[in-house]
């Protein structure tokens, strides 16, 4: 059901500091803001006068150097390292599967340990290299409460929200695997120059609706864009929403990243069917929220994602409607050829029709790139790797449901 279960989807609470507990129960230092990290250090007895210095030291190791082991923190005294190790973790999630497409697209299926009474969860992260840039597509929830009819994730029930640690860990792990952190033997304080990095952009377009997990997503993105750490420019981070109108203004105001809207239809009757959250927040409200997006300008346009569905939303009437709808909103339109999945009733529009649609929009002055499907040989659209893994484990009676193919915008 549309928009339900938001409350039950709260991210699990962090474990309290409890010395000498098992690794899985130790709180992670990843995903905490500086104040929270300082509070935890205080709890384990680090003197007040050292807190600020320790936080910036550890912050640097975690986010600039990318270490996942306290033992390599060369400028931290041995007994302090031992104490940190005893009480906290900075470990990465387990890689269940890593696939590399022949076009360079990479996809990871990651497993996070159980939280509280929960069980381990698995999510996907996809890296898409392109000419001059590389985009990491990050998940915000395990499953989704929304039921967009063209999306395979919409067929999976929501298991839970991801914590800021789990959201950020996707970026840290991808940087590890792509060699995007400085070498261990480079002098302390060395930053990886932005132009040399493989991951230049990050999109919250993986599994889930990020604005139904606002606080954890906000915390993760503020850490990802922190200039003394991972240092991704906010202009290179895009959050994609299906249209959770009340949180759109806050996204611009409190996080300040680029916005993308999973639009897919220009009439309420059709969008009610394709993106059912539209029944709650219809197009009029959605577009009004877009117009009011803080910082919106021709240099900071909103991306509208539009999946091309044969004989459903791909007529020139629809293209005309799209132009009218977006009139006056600085926009870019991403046309996404639909990637059919087993059991779907939709088909991808004919290529000639997609081109006609794109030409029409272009002629009206909108940039409207057609997204090239990527990583098809490794099922790189969100949800498919998880789908595969789970199909295998159905025999093990692990309770997950059928999967998706088009995630929250399957490509950048
Ligand atoms: S398109 Fe996004 S919001 Fe809609 S079901 Fe898929 S993951 Fe959820």
SSE map:
Layout: H1 34-43, H2 48-64, H3 78-87, E1 94-100, E2 106-112, E3 121-130, E4 133-137, E5 141-142, E6 160-161, H4 164-178, E7 201-204, H5 214-224, E8 237-241, H6 245-255, E9 258-262, H7 268-274, H8 283-291, E10 302-308, H9 316-325, E11 331-337, H10 351-363, H11 384-394
Parallel strand pairs: 4-7, 7-8, 8-9, 9-10, 10-11
Antiparallel strand pairs: 1-2, 2-3, 3-4, 5-6
Helix pairs in contact: 1-2, 4-5, 5-6, 6-8, 9-10
Q: What proportion of the residues is helical, as a percent range?
A: 25-40%
Our count of helices gives 11
What portion of residues belong to β-strands?
Answer: 5-15%
Give a count of the beta strands, DSSP E runs of length 2 or more: 11
**Average pLDDT figure:** 85
CATH class of the largest domain: Alpha Beta
> Which ligands occur here?
iron/sulfur cluster
- Calculate the terminal CA-CA distance, rounded to whole Å: 27 Å
* SSE-based structural type: alpha/beta
Strand order of the largest sheet: 1-2-3-4-7-8-9-10-11
Overall geometry comes to elongated
Radius of gyration: 22 Å
> Main sheet, how many strands, which sense, barrel?
9 strands, mixed
Poorly predicted runs are 1-10, 13-23, 388-412
Structurally, the number of domains stands at 2
């Amino acid at each position: 059901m549309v928009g339900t279960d938001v409350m039950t989807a709260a991210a699990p609470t962090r474990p309290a500091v409890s010395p000498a507990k098992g690794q899985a129960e130790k709180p992670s230092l990843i995903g905490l803001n500086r104040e929270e990290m300082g509070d935890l250090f205080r709890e384990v007895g680090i003197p007040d006068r050292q807190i600020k210095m320790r936080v910036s030291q550890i912050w640097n190791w975690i986010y600039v150097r990318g270490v996942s082991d306290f033992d390599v923190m060369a400028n931290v005294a041995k007994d302090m390292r031992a104490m940190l190790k005893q009480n906290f973790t900075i470990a990465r999630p387990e890689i269940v599967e890593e696939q590399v497409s022949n076009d360079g697209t990479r996809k990871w299926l990651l497993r996070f340990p159980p939280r509280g009474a929960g069980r381990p969860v698995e999510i996907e992260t996809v890296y898409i290299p392109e000419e001059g840039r590389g985009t990491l597509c990050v998940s915000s929830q395990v499953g989704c409460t929304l039921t967009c009819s063209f999306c395979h994730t919409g067929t999976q029930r929501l298991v839970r929200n991801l914590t800021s640690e789990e959201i950020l860990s996707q970026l840290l792990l991808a940087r590890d695997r792509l060699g995007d952190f400085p070498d261990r033997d480079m002098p302390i304080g060395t930053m990886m120059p932005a132009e040399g990095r493989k991951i230049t952009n990050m999109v919250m377009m993986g599994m889930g609706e990020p604005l139904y997990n606002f606080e954890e997503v906000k915390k993760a993105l503020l850490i990802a864009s922190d200039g003394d750490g991972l240092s991704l420019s906010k202009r290179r981070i895009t959050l994609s929403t299906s249209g959770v109108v009340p949180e759109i203004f806050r996204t611009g105001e409190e996080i300040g990243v680029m916005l993308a809207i999973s639009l897919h239809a220009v009439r309420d009757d059709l969008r009610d069917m394709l993106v059912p959250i539209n029944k709650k927040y219809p197009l009029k409200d959605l577009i009004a929220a877009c117009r009011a997006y803080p910082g919106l300008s021709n240099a900071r346009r909103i991306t509208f994602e539009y999946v091309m569905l044969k004989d459903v939303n791909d007529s020139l009437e629809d293209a005309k409607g799209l132009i009218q709808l977006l009139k006056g909103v600085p926009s870019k339109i991403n046309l996404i050829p639909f990637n059919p999945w087993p059991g779907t009733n939709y088909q991808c529009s004919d290529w000639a029709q997609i081109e006609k649609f794109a030409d029409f929009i272009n002629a009206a002055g909108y940039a409207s790139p057609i997204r090239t499907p990527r990583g098809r040989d490794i099922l790189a659209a969100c949800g498919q790797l998880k789908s595969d893994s789970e199909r295998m484990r159905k025999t093990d009676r692990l309770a997950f449901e059928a999967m998706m193919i088009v995630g929250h915008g399957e490509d950048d």
